[in-house]
Fold this sequence. Notes:
Layout: H1 13-41, H2 75-88, H3 98-109, H4 111-126
Amino acid sequence: xxxxxxxxxxxxxxxxxxxxxxxxxxxxxxxxxxxxxxxxxxxxxxxxxxxxxxxxxxxxxxxxxxxxxxxxxxxxxxxxxxxxxxxxxxxxxxxxxxxxxxxxxxxxxxxxxxxxxxxxxxxxxxxxxxxx
Length: 132
């Protein structure tokens, strides 16, 4: 995948299109190439892997978001989980380390709190003075 970090108004539309070509149309193109054979064989599965950023939007994370491996899941763990998922024929699996996983649940069940925390980070990043 292709990743960019920055404010949306500073990312060119051309770069947005390149990212969509790689991250969106790439999997679609591959699927369309594989699908006829899967249909004729009457078997096959397509597995898409995405990052946690797809679960919620955060300011200054425009088209995609990159973190060091220490915040992510090791590729071997991902590969093992993909194989388990395929064997079990599960539709979706959510893998993440505890802090990012907690953020998704906080966003889901306590959205006002989540956005208040995010807003604090944005103010700090922009050096915006507190009101009052």
